[in-house]
Task: inverse folding
């Protein structure tokens, strides 16, 4: 029989916690998936050839969390055998798939750092990022095999390149991923890891210079996964089928691969097949409940749903929510999904620097669904998720009121917000308020009394006309509500009198006539002050969009830097 001994502590002695000092590690997610959800399905759409037009043909691959976990542990053993040490970087250049998920779990499990590289960058930019990160191993999808010879020459730190998926013929200096894993037994014992150890690395999109690297810890990943799952965040559970369309190279697909593995959600990966028709068919076939992507993805999906409905063959989708991030979704887009197809778009906001989830736009209990206020709030980026704090400051660093009107520099802090950049001195990206360190997002926003945050613009994209600020984002979203307009980007052009004036660059929908300047002015006049309205409209065949779904306004500003306004009807 065992006995316990009771010690009477001194009344003046401090009380210490009796909780176990268990480390928050990604291995906990791997083990949970392996043991509790081993039969839960993971579906991947993979290229299996090309059609007569040269377009890739999709093939369906099915596996389970149990099989993915087993192969993730084999990957961990293979990386150890390849000489990867704790803290060294392993890069992935891949689309969303079960193999990429194995890398998400297996690389951090053996102490390596998962470095997801943006597949949409130019090979020279990719080489720069790989070299900056000093990646030791590269896992690259077979569809990007043409880059391998370039990277072999340009990236001296790479000691091994492993190809995900079969190749028509072997490439010298590479290994086949599946054959490589088959050589190794699953990792038998995890190394000693601390929750503060590096687990992942993502680079910013680099729209204003070279990309900057943010390094995530095991702890930040676990806390982010725990907090992003509840109903008032992304609403992910064991009973859901989740389709993360947002790329796994883009801020860990907003954390969804880890969150879904932690909670046992059935996962569907669309791979490279992200056009509206492919996604609608996939969502219907796989009975997707939650999906996540950028506004341009949802515009394509909406067009396909509208087409099918008009043709009398509407899709039957069990979707409960479409999470939208990466850029602001126009209120008109949110309304169209709800009013035409009874589908809910939920705004979320975050950045590479916030791992990324910072806010989610959840309807307050006192706001009726489908009301004007409901859509107005839905077009905002939402309230901060638990443990994340937001603040606004002015040009002199003063704290600004949360009145829903006053625009200021948006600050954020929390346990999954970065406090520095890897290998960079970026002190101007951080400020101290009341003894606490805050990250300066570069977004200009408002905060209202309920806590709802609304991005007004990036600080570099604001238009200063006659000493007053004009938000380009609000105007863009309203323009995209016009029945003839597909995309609209508003930029500043120089003006000798007002310093800057807004120019709207517009892409029309197919087979429509351009609206006149007067028509567009009348369309916007009820929503904005007269002096906010664009002085001119340029109709273009396309608007450049970056790898994360944002308009490349830097390119537009360069293109129109010498633009001379002919209309001066809307002045401060």
Result:
């Amino acid at each position: 029989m065992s006995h316990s001994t009771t010690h009477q502590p001194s009344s003046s002695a401090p009380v210490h916690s009796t909780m176990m000092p268990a480390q928050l590690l990604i291995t906990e997610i791997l083990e949970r998936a392996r043991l509790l959800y081993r039969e839960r399905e993971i579906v991947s759409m993979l290229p299996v050839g090309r059609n007569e037009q040269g377009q890739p043909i999709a093939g369906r691959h099915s596996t389970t969390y149990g099989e993915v976990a087993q192969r993730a542990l084999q990957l961990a053993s293979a990386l150890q055998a390849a000489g990867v040490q704790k803290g060294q970087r392993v890069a992935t250049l891949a689309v969303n798939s079960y193999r990429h998920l194995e890398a998400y779990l297996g690389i951090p499990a053996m102490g390596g750092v998962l470095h997801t590289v943006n597949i949409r960058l130019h090979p020279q930019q990719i080489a720069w990022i790989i070299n900056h990160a000093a990646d030791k191993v590269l896992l690259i999808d077979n569809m990007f095999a043409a880059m391998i010879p370039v990277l072999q020459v340009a990236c001296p730190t790479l000691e091994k390149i492993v190809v995900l998926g079969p190749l028509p013929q072997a490439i010298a200096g590479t290994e086949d991923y599946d054959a490589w894993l088959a050589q190794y037994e699953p990792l038998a014992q995890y190394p000693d890891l601390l929750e503060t150890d590096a687990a992942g690395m993502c680079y910013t999109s680099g729209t204003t210079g070279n990309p900057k690297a943010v390094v995530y810890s095991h702890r930040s990943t676990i806390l982010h996964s725990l907090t992003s799952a509840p109903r008032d965040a992304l609403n992910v559970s064991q009973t859901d089928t989740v389709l993360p369309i947002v790329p796994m190279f883009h801020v860990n697909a907003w954390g969804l691969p880890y969150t879904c593995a932690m909670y046992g959600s059935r996962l569907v990966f669309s791979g490279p097949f992200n056009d509206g028709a492919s996604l609608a068919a996939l969502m219907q076939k796989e009975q997707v409940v939650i999906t996540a992507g950028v506004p341009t993805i949802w515009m394509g999906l909406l067009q396909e749903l509208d087409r099918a409905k008009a043709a009398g063959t509407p899709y039957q989708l069990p979707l409960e929510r479409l999470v939208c991030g990466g850029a602001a979704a126009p209120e008109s887009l949110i309304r169209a999904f709800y009013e035409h197809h009874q589908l809910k778009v939920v705004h979320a906001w975050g950045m590479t620097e916030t791992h990324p989830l910072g806010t989610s736009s959840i309807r307050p209990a006192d706001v009726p669904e489908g009301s004007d206020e409901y859509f107005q709030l839905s077009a905002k980026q939402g309230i901060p998720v638990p443990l994340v704090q937001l603040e606004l400051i002015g040009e002199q660093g003063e704290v600004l009121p949360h009145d829903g009107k006053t625009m200021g520099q948006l600050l954020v802090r929390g346990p999954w917000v970065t406090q520095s950049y890897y290998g960079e001195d970026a002190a101007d990206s951080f400020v101290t308020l009341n003894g606490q360190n805050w990250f300066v997002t570069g977004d200009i926003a408002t905060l209202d009394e309920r806590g709802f945050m609304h991005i007004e613009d990036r600080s570099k994209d604001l238009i200063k006309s006659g000493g007053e600020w004009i938000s380009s984002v609000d105007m863009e979203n309203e323009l995209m509500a016009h029945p003839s307009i597909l995309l609209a980007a508003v930029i500043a052009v120089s003006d000798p009198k007002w310093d800057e004036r807004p120019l709207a660059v517009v892409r029309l929908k197919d087979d429509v006539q351009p609206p006149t300047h007067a028509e567009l002015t009348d369309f916007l006049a009820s929503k904005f002050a007269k002096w906010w309205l664009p002085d001119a409209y340029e109709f273009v065949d396309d608007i450049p969009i970056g790898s994360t779904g944002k308009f490349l306004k830097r390119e537009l500003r360069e293109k129109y830097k010498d633009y001379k306004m002919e209309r001066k009807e809307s002045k401060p």
Summary: DSSP finds 16 helices and 26 strands in the chain. The longest strand covers residues 436-447.
